[in-house]
Every structure is written in C-alpha cells, then in structure tokens.
Amino acid sequence: MLNPTPAAISLLVSVLALVSFPAKSHAGVLFSAESFAVLAGSTVTNIGSTILNGDLGVYPGSAITGFGPGVVNGSTYAGGAVPQQAQSDALAGYLVLINEVPTGNLSGQDLGGLTLTGGIWKFSSSAGLTGTLILDAQGDSNARFDFQIGSTLTTASGAEVLLVNGAQAGNVFWQVGTSATLGTNTSFAGSILADQSITLTTGANITGRAIALNGAVTLDNNFVAIPEPVSFWLLADCLALLGAWFLVPWGGSPDHRILWTASPESRLKGVSQLT
Q1: Residue 95 belongs to what H/E stretch?
Q2: Alpha carbon distance 84, 254 (integer Å)
Q3: 41, 62, 95, 63: which is closest to 211 by C-alpha?
Q4: pTM of the predicted model, to two decimals?
Q5: pLDDT (tens digit per residue) in 116-169
C-alpha cells in the first residue's frame, strides 16, 4: 500500500483547490462548440479505430458512420439543437478570426521550418506544412496563434505542429477558407474551422478540434482530443508524484503510472485506452 508523505498530500490538496474553480474558456472563440472534438455540416465518416476525446456532432446533416469501431469519449449528436447551436457559435468564431488584422503575411511560404510567436498569421490563398512548425509562446501560456488561410490547408505525411515555451493547443486557431487535409501521421495542434470539409488521413492526430461548417469530416484511424486547461495537467502531474494512487487500481501495472509523465497528447490517448 502506498503511503504518501505529508508534503505530497499537501501538494495534491493545493492542486485540487486550483482545479476546483470553473475552467475559463481558452480564448472565447468557440463557446458551445468548445466541447466538440469533431463537428461537421453534412456528414461524419470514419474508418478504423479512431478515438475522439470530446463530443461528436453533425448539423444540418445527420449522418454519422464508423462509430464503432471508432470510440467517442463524449456525447454524439446526429442532428438536433445541440450541434445546431455549436455550428452557429463556430460560424461566429470563424467570422471573428477571418476579420482580425494580421500580424504578418506568410503567403507563398511553407509553414515547415518556421518558428512563430503569438500573433495573427495570414495566407492569401493556400497554406502547406511540410516538416515541423514551431509555435513559441515565449513563456506566455495565454499567447494566441491565429491563422487566416484563404483557401486550402494541407499537411504532408509526418508533418508536426510543435508547441513550446508555454504554448497551448487551446489557443491555436486555423480559419480555413475552403477545406483542410492532414497527411498521414500528421501531429497537429489547434482547432481547425474550415468553411467546407476536413479530411484526416491515416494516423493523423489533432490536439484541438476538427470543425467543418458546411461539408464533411472524414476520419481514418485518428486521434482527436479537445485541449485541456493547464490546471488539468498540473493535477495529472501531481498524481504522477503520488503514484496515481487514487486513479490506478492497486493492482494496476507500472505502465499506467508512467502514463502521467508522457506528453499531453500521449496522456490523453492513454486515458482513453484505460477507460
């Protein structure tokens, strides 16, 4: 039996007090759409063992296929008032993003190889990502990264959005004028708001959201998790110090405890597989 020290218990109590306050919206953009990992306008189609940590919905369409084998760790809405309101809020957020004054114009550049600080980054037409894009919050966990993309967003196979120095996936937004396609095994961060469709090819993952205002969202063995507030990870790491003694069964494997020392994306994926 584990016997946490008084100092460890004190740390846990402090973190529990922190997370007892209601979580503030990351950036006040999506409102009721914030709870959706995937939200489509026409249809949602899935192939394989996709995991969604968050709600799944479609409106004004109502067709959702492929769950199961896909798993939704949240609520599913095939039409109705809830996804209707979420689509309305997502559209309002989309219009806010598209009307912001840009910090800089990146038209014609590949996002791969760039390091960007907080700001509003514009592409007059299409945007592409090959390799790694680094988003650097420079120690400010509230730093916003907004991308205005005139037409398509496309990532190459194995592309990555890397968040450093306090950057939070909940503060990254991608306004896409037409459609977005994430290449095989892309590791993506932020909420995609596309006017038309979003396609996640095999193994593409998002810490954020896939929101298609009018078209379909197509999934293929993906992982999509809505971002968690910083306080969530403070609690998780506190539990790691205590050996996860009230989350992991007493006979739980060491792998379960190691889970809490992994990256946020890995931790979320691991939690979904333990439940």
Answers
A1: helix 81-98
A2: 44
A3: 41
A4: 0.79
A5: 999 999 999 999 999 999 999 999 999 999 999 999 999 999 999 999 999 999
**Per-residue tokens: 135:** 């988003």
Are the beta carbons of 181 and 218 closer than 8 angstroms?
A: no
**DSSP string for residues in 160-217:** EEEEETT--GGGEEEEESS-EEEPTT-EEEEEEEESS-EEE-TT-EEEEEEEESSS-E
What are φ and ψ of residue 204, in 5° steps? Answer: -75, 140
Residues in the chain: 275
Alpha-carbon radius of gyration of the chain: 19
3-state secondary structure of 49: coil
* Residue 204 contacts residue 185 (beta carbons within 8 Å): yes
- Give how far Cα 43 sits from Cα of 28, 132, 264, Å: 26, 30, 29
